[in-house]
């Protein structure tokens, strides 16, 4: 019984800490300011790296072209696509002079594809405000203007918006919504806005906006050229260089469907894992914290309720049985509190960010699957077969021939 009580306290603490941080962050994670027509807005270069993006590139570009209040140019870099990506953008460019498509130069040794494409795009941009946008993101008409105001208003040099994450398959519904949940449960936004520590750096690689001056001082995407996970590495590079970064809630400004299949979700998350939760020295921490806080309370609650219902005792000693009977209500109370602290933040994310409720209903299962993806990435790396993406292996494992 003492072991059960100890595990109960561990589960309660591991659920309570992220829940309390979530409560604070929920007030700090806000949408960008509304448009103020009295404030002049600087022109923006929208830079879109695209590799085999025919399913979403047209919607992405047309949504950008529908932007209001702002002068813009759209540059799409066709990164050796084998589908109709370039053809689709060229067709749009014939009807709108603000759009152009460029062919990516050969991928350089030691670079990941996206970082290389973004760096090349930055050299093609005409304006001093740069927006890096994934090709599967669609913006609302006021999105760019409001993000520009956010960049200016809070003094940050790099800002990132978290779009509404659209999901279709079961694995998408379970895992993709955890992006917002992890951000608000484990990143102290107050600390991010008061300290430049790189550890506080975070963002969403789907949508970044920055000033050209800061970008060039940091070294741009060359500073994170080997990364598959610029959502973490680019903000941290800015902070290491002495700049501020910030994030905002772009649920009403942008939408994105990251992956369109279960395999896409699995390998897409796994490719980033080694630079995030599955990094050396972190995977053990995340495994313990997430299992103890998000899975253990539910398992223990089911166990205690089931044994009580079946009148199963944990020992044959009369004194031990008496202790169990008197302690069980207390343990049930603690476990109930732990489960609420675990599930309420997840419920709030489902409502606030308009996500599938399935992920909340079986939240512990989603956590187990998330950790499975992380450990899969770890074992692949240990076996010398790291997860590739769109036909490209992580640069740290490339030979010169493979890079081409």
Automatic annotation (TrEMBL):
Q: What is its main location?
A: membrane
Q: Which segments cross the bilayer?
A: 283-309, 329-345, 357-377
Subcellular localization: Cell membrane
Tell me which UniProt keywords the record has, alphabetically.
Cell membrane, Glycosyltransferase, Membrane, Transferase, Transmembrane, Transmembrane helix
Q: What Pfam families does the record tag this protein with?
A: Glycos_transf_2
GO molecular function terms here? glycosyltransferase activity
Superkingdom of this protein's organism: Bacteria
Domain Glycosyltransferase 2-like, which positions? 45-166
**Transmembrane helix listed as a keyword:** yes
What Enzyme Commission number(s) appear in the record? 2.4.-.-
Tell me the PANTHER family matching this sequence.
Answer: GLYCOSYLTRANSFERASE (PTHR43646), GLYCOSYLTRANSFERASE 2-LIKE DOMAIN-CONTAINING PROTEIN (PTHR43646:SF2)
Q: What's this protein's name? A: Glycosyltransferase
Q: Which organism is it from?
A: Gemmata palustris
């Amino acid at each position: 019984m003492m072991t059960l009580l100890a595990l109960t306290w561990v589960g309660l603490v591991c659920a309570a800490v992220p829940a309390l941080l979530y409560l604070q962050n929920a007030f700090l994670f806000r949408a960008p300011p509304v448009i103020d027509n009295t404030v002049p807005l600087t022109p923006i270069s929208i830079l879109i790296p695209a590799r085999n993006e025919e399913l979403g590139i047209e919607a992405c570009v047309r949504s950008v072209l529908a932007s209001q209040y702002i002068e813009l140019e759209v540059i799409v870099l066709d990164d050796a696509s084998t589908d109709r990506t370039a053809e689709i953008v060229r067709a749009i460019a014939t009807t709108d002079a603000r759009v152009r498509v460029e062919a990516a130069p050969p991928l350089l040794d030691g670079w990941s594809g996206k970082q290389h494409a973004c760096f090349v795009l930055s050299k093609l941009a005409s304006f001093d405000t740069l927006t890096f946008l994934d090709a599967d993101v669609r913006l609302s008409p006021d999105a760019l203007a409001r993000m520009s105001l956010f960049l200016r208003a809070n003094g940050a040099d790099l800002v990132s918006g978290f779009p509404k994450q659209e999901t279709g398959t079961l694995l998408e519904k379970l895992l993709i919504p955890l992006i917002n949940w992890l951000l608000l449960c484990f990143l102290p936004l107050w600390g991010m806005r008061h300290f430049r520590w790189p550890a506080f750096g975070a963002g969403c690689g789907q949508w970044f906006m920055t000033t050209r001056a800061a970008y060039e001082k940091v070294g741009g995407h060359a500073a994170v050229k080997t990364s598959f996970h610029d959502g973490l590495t680019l903000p941290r590079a800015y902070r290491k260089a002495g700049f501020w970064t910030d994030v905002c809630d772009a649920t009403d400004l942008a939408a994105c469907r990251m992956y369109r299949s279960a395999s896409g979700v699995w390998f897409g998350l796994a490719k980033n894992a080694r630079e995030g939760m599955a990094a050396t020295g972190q995977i053990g921490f995340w495994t313990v914290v997430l299992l103890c806080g998000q899975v253990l309370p539910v398992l223990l609650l089911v166990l205690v309720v089931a044994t009580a219902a079946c009148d199963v005792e944990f020992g044959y000693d009369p004194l031990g049985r008496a202790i169990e009977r008197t302690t069980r209500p207390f343990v049930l109370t603690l476990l109930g509190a732990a489960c609420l602290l675990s599930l309420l933040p997840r419920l709030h994310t489902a409502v606030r960010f308009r996500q599938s409720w399935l992920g909340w209903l079986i939240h512990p299962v989603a956590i187990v699957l998330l950790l499975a993806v992380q450990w899969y990435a770890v074992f692949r790396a240990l076996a010398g077969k790291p997860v590739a993406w769109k036909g490209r292996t992580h640069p740290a494992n490339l030979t010169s021939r493979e890079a081409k």
